[in-house]
Fold this protein.
Amino acid sequence: MTLEILTPDRKVFEGEATSVTLPGTLGFFEILNHHAPIISTLEDGKVTVRNGSAKEEYYFIRGGVVEASDNKVIILAEGIMQK
């Protein structure tokens, strides 16, 4: 799936991912390839991006929303905290 992580001032990540784990307002949840359409609010916390290999990337966001549709995931974060 295609993943984008955006803040009001820049594009933080754009690329392919096999899964992404997000800090939802009711707890962490995961979006996989071909996930059903979803829109959800996000809390401050860690976003884990996996691309199929052993490598994982981490981003620490300050709230926001996520939308997944047609195998594309867009995370609109209020900001990115230092790792």
Q: What stands out?
A: The beta strands are 2-6, 11-16, 19-24, 27-32, 38-42, 45-50, 56-61, 64-69, 72-77, 80-81. The chain has no helices and ten strands. The mean pLDDT is 94.
